[in-house]
């Protein structure tokens, strides 16, 4: 086959994918920049807005709170969603029985549509007949307001989020743990390392790459949290659960025609995540050298 | 504790049935020696039981509560303290939910979007991966890089421009609004391409010498040997479209065209609690069934994508 013909056939096979990517993946990235500097309502031709969208977004009373909440949510979700799966994986890896069952059970919530998990937990959080308060009551503990109090609402969201997402992280860690060569543990043991020392000096260094990768993925994922505040609290009480993604949704679809403002907020979120990624890359690189 | 000790002592004295050692196939943090010491073994069984009980309570019990909740009457659901087993299990809530939410329609919509999306993105992604892996066009690596780069951009960040783009194209409330963006999936292309790369050159050369064109090679050589990866990508694509919420929420706004997730979220405030529970059970069943049958493939795909990726 000639080079030209080979290239032509190849691009023939590629053209559908290229078109999809161009219109629905690459172009929206560019559009994000353009959109943030435009006034648009999708009907009239868009007009130039300068920095209006950005000032409008920053002036919104929920702006600061949304960022604070998002960071808080991310930190809490990391404490739960990062440590819990790792410890779970460590323990599961030691067990010799019922492995299939445990793996199945831990991953089960991941398979549920998020809306099912979220609405199920909304019922558990119900201050009256909700399961959680019933359990507290059973142990003679005071009832909590869960979603209805600004001090517990965000934590309640983190609990749902951890419950429905921890399965995949756990299984990924478990696979990483099973790839650690047994000789390393034997050598450490001969050197007199106890169990904790073995975890510290063998397990963690051996799974470092995957731990770092998951840290990055989880931060990016949790920074985008939307469905939990949207379905469970609507941002309340007293804006205590407004996240950046939720505020973005509100600008675009609740406040009416604020696509430009939403775009500006999205751009800020993207910049924040990019900065974070750069910082993280730098850290890992210094580490290696 | 004392009684257990006494029983073991008695058993030892009788000289039979020493507790079987825990079998170790792969060395982990705890050494086999420690594990099979007397206390090691006791601790092991204690931890095993605790983990079994804990994970069942944390992950299975909520599902049990959902299913039985759907079978309780309205009064029983509100009763305090709650009943563990429904007093008079009925399926009324399911029929009620079926009618109130129009679940039949919602399920049909969701299945239609999932299957259509699966067919379309498989066709697009397999063709692209095949071209990048076996036909190796000029700038192939640049294209692959640009496709993979989209994975770095969080979906929430481009949600609004994507919505505006889809609205400009007049694809709101149109299934193609779900299918076209879903086909632009860098991860699928990456997984497929990596698998295609591992297919021996000789196999393809042989087919070519026999006079097969590129399409024929794809259809009769590459696809048949790629069944495992095609299975994994298919399951992920279908499950993802069943689970998706935000995107269909934005673009499938006609109540006639909603997916089951969006339909449930819209009506959840307006109907009785046990009807909601029944709706949730029905919405959860398809993906859980998929999980039951394709557990192995799902786990394999999960680790294939994350570890070596």
UniProtKB/TrEMBL annotation, chain A:
<dbReference type="InterPro" id="IPR000515">
    <property type="entry name" value="MetI-like"/>
</dbReference>
<dbReference type="InterPro" id="IPR035906">
    <property type="entry name" value="MetI-like_sf"/>
</dbReference>
<keyword id="KW-0762">Sugar transport</keyword>
<keyword id="KW-1003">Cell membrane</keyword>
<feature type="transmembrane region" description="Helical">
    <location>
        <begin position="258"/>
        <end position="279"/>
    </location>
</feature>
<feature type="transmembrane region" description="Helical">
    <location>
        <begin position="209"/>
        <end position="227"/>
    </location>
</feature>
<keyword id="KW-0812">Transmembrane</keyword>
<feature type="domain" description="ABC transmembrane type-1">
    <location>
        <begin position="67"/>
        <end position="280"/>
    </location>
</feature>
<dbReference type="Pfam" id="PF00528">
    <property type="entry name" value="BPD_transp_1"/>
</dbReference>
<keyword id="KW-0813">Transport</keyword>
<comment type="similarity">
    <text>Belongs to the binding-protein-dependent transport system permease family.</text>
</comment>
<dbReference type="GO" id="GO:0055085">
    <property type="term" value="P:transmembrane transport"/>
</dbReference>
<feature type="transmembrane region" description="Helical">
    <location>
        <begin position="145"/>
        <end position="164"/>
    </location>
</feature>
<keyword id="KW-1133">Transmembrane helix</keyword>
<dbReference type="InterPro" id="IPR051393">
    <property type="entry name" value="ABC_transporter_permease"/>
</dbReference>
<dbReference type="GO" id="GO:0005886">
    <property type="term" value="C:plasma membrane"/>
</dbReference>
<feature type="transmembrane region" description="Helical">
    <location>
        <begin position="104"/>
        <end position="125"/>
    </location>
</feature>
<feature type="transmembrane region" description="Helical">
    <location>
        <begin position="7"/>
        <end position="27"/>
    </location>
</feature>
<feature type="transmembrane region" description="Helical">
    <location>
        <begin position="71"/>
        <end position="92"/>
    </location>
</feature>
<protein>
    <submittedName>
        <fullName>Multiple sugar transport system permease protein</fullName>
    </submittedName>
</protein>
<keyword id="KW-0472">Membrane</keyword>
TrEMBL record, chain B:
<feature type="transmembrane region" description="Helical">
    <location>
        <begin position="217"/>
        <end position="242"/>
    </location>
</feature>
<feature type="transmembrane region" description="Helical">
    <location>
        <begin position="176"/>
        <end position="196"/>
    </location>
</feature>
<keyword id="KW-0813">Transport</keyword>
<dbReference type="Pfam" id="PF00528">
    <property type="entry name" value="BPD_transp_1"/>
</dbReference>
<feature type="transmembrane region" description="Helical">
    <location>
        <begin position="111"/>
        <end position="132"/>
    </location>
</feature>
<keyword id="KW-0812">Transmembrane</keyword>
<dbReference type="GO" id="GO:0055085">
    <property type="term" value="P:transmembrane transport"/>
</dbReference>
<feature type="transmembrane region" description="Helical">
    <location>
        <begin position="43"/>
        <end position="67"/>
    </location>
</feature>
<feature type="transmembrane region" description="Helical">
    <location>
        <begin position="139"/>
        <end position="164"/>
    </location>
</feature>
<dbReference type="GO" id="GO:0005886">
    <property type="term" value="C:plasma membrane"/>
</dbReference>
<keyword id="KW-1133">Transmembrane helix</keyword>
<feature type="transmembrane region" description="Helical">
    <location>
        <begin position="275"/>
        <end position="294"/>
    </location>
</feature>
<comment type="similarity">
    <text>Belongs to the binding-protein-dependent transport system permease family.</text>
</comment>
<keyword id="KW-1003">Cell membrane</keyword>
<dbReference type="InterPro" id="IPR000515">
    <property type="entry name" value="MetI-like"/>
</dbReference>
<feature type="domain" description="ABC transmembrane type-1">
    <location>
        <begin position="107"/>
        <end position="294"/>
    </location>
</feature>
<keyword id="KW-0762">Sugar transport</keyword>
<dbReference type="InterPro" id="IPR035906">
    <property type="entry name" value="MetI-like_sf"/>
</dbReference>
<keyword id="KW-0472">Membrane</keyword>
<protein>
    <submittedName>
        <fullName>Multiple sugar transport system permease protein</fullName>
    </submittedName>
</protein>
């Amino acid at each position: 086959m000639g080079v030209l013909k080979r290239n032509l056939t190849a691009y023939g096979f590629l053209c559908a994918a290229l078109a999809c990517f161009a219109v629905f993946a690459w172009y929206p990235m560019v559009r994000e920049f353009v959109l943030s500097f435009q006034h648009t309502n999708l009907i009239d031709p868009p007009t130039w807005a300068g920095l209006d969208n950005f000032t409008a977004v920053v002036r919104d009373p929920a702006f600061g709170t949304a960022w604070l909440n998002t960071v808080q949510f991310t930190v809490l979700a990391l404490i739960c969603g990062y440590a819990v799966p790792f410890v779970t994986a460590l323990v599961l890896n030691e067990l010799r029985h019922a492995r299939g069952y445990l793996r199945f059970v831990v991953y089960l919530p991941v398979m549920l549509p998020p809306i099912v998990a979220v609405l199920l937990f909304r019922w558990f959080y119900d201050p009256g007949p909700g399961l959680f308060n019933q359990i507290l009551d059973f142990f003679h503990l005071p009832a909590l307001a869960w979603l209805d109090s600004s001090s517990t609402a965000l934590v309640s969201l983190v609990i749902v989020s951890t419950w429905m997402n921890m399965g995949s992280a756990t299984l990924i860690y478990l696979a990483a743990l099973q790839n650690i060569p047994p000789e390393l543990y034997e050598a450490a043991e001969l050197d007199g390392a106890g169990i904790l020392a073995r975890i510290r000096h063998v397990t963690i260094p051996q799974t470092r790459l995957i731990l770092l990768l998951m840290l990055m993925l989880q931060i990016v994922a949790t920074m985008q949290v939307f469905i939990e505040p949207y379905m469970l609290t609507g941002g309340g009480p007293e804006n205590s659960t407004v996240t950046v993604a939720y505020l973005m949704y509100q600008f675009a679809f609740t406040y009416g025609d604020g696509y430009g403002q939403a775009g500006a907020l999205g751009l800020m979120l993207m910049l924040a995540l990019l900065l974070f990624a750069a910082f993280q890359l730098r850290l890992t690189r210094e580490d290696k050298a | 504790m004392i009684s257990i000790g006494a029983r073991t002592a008695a058993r030892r004295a009788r000289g039979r049935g020493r507790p079987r050692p825990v079998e170790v196939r792969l060395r982990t943090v705890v050494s086999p020696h420690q594990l099979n010491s007397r206390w090691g073994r006791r601790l092991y069984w204690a931890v095993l039981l605790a983990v079994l009980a804990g994970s069942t309570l944390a992950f299975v019990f909520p599902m049990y509560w959902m299913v039985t909740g759907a079978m309780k009457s309205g009064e029983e659901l509100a009763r305090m303290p709650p009943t563990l087993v429904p007093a008079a299990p009925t399926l009324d809530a399911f029929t009620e939910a079926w009618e109130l939410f129009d679940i039949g329609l919602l399920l049909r919509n969701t299945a239609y979007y999932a299957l259509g999306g699966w067919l379309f993105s498989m066709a697009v992604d397999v063709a692209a991966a095949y071209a990048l892996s076996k036909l190796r066009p000029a700038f192939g690596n640049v294209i692959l890089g640009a496709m993979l780069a989209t994975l770095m951009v969080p979906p929430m960040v481009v949600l609004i421009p994507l919505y505006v783009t889809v609205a400009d194209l007049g694809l709101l409330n149109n299934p193609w609004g779900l299918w076209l963006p879903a086909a632009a999936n860098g991860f699928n292309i990456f997984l497929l391409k990596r698998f295609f790369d591992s297919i021996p050159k000789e196999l393809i050369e042989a087919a070519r010498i026999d006079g097969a064109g590129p399409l024929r090679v794809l259809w009769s050589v590459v696809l048949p040997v790629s069944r495992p990866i095609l299975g994994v990508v298919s399951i992920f694509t279908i499950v993802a479209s069943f689970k998706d919420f935000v995107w269909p929420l934005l673009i499938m706004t006609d109540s006639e065209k909603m997916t089951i997730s969006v339909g449930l979220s819209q009506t959840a405030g307006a109907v009785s609690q046990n009807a909601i529970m029944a709706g949730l059970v029905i919405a959860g069943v398809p993906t859980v069934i998929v999980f039951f049958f394709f557990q192995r493939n799902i786990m394999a795909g999960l680790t294939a994508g994350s570890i070596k990726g």
